[in-house]
Amino acid sequence: MTTKQPTGLGPRGRAFWRDTVAAYDLERAELELLAETCRTLDEIDELVVALDRDGMTVPGSAGQTRTHPAINEVRQHRLALGRLLAQLALPDLDGGSIPKPSSLRASHAARTRWGRRDGGAA
């Protein structure tokens, strides 16, 4: 299976691609998810650069101060990144799987319900 890096990736996307294909043997569908993950990482970086350059607010059409539109876009891209990474479901490098956020929340809820903080007896 070819693991040729997609064209047009930025520095963060290229680094994530390179590190991931070096560490894991991915199927074609996983490589497609990885490519979209890398593009999303690069888009997040571009949006953050815009926020750094412009600030958190911009003038509105009537001269009023309004929230920079990139703030919402960064938030949406970060949510999409989380979903892409969850779909990719890469195991940790020790061979175990990385727990999904829903699993972590469920474990926390169970510990809270049963009066356990560290997974041990109360």
Query: What is the string of SSEs from the N terminus onward?
Result: HHEEHH
Q: How many strands, what sense, and barrel or not for the largest sheet? A: 2 strands, antiparallel
Task: Provide a count of the helices.
Answer: 4
Strand content: under 5%
Helices and strands: which structural class? mainly alpha
Portion in helices: 55-70%
Order of strands, widest sheet? 1-2
Mean pLDDT: 86
Shape field: flat
**Count of strand segments:** 2
Give unreliable regions as ranges: none
End-to-end C-alpha gap:
50 Å
The total tally of domains equals: 1
Short description:
The protein has 122 residues and is mainly alpha-helical.
SSE inventory with pairings:
Blueprint: H1 11-23, H2 28-54, E1 57-59, E2 65-67, H3 69-88, H4 101-113
Antiparallel strand pairs: 1-2
Helix pairs in contact: 1-2, 2-3
Describe what this molecule looks like in 3D.
- The mean pLDDT is 86.
- The N and C termini lie far apart (50 Å).
- This protein is mainly alpha-helical and 122 residues long.
- Helices cover 60% and strands 5% of the residues.
- The chain has one domain (11-113).
- The protein has a two-stranded antiparallel sheet with strand order 1-2.
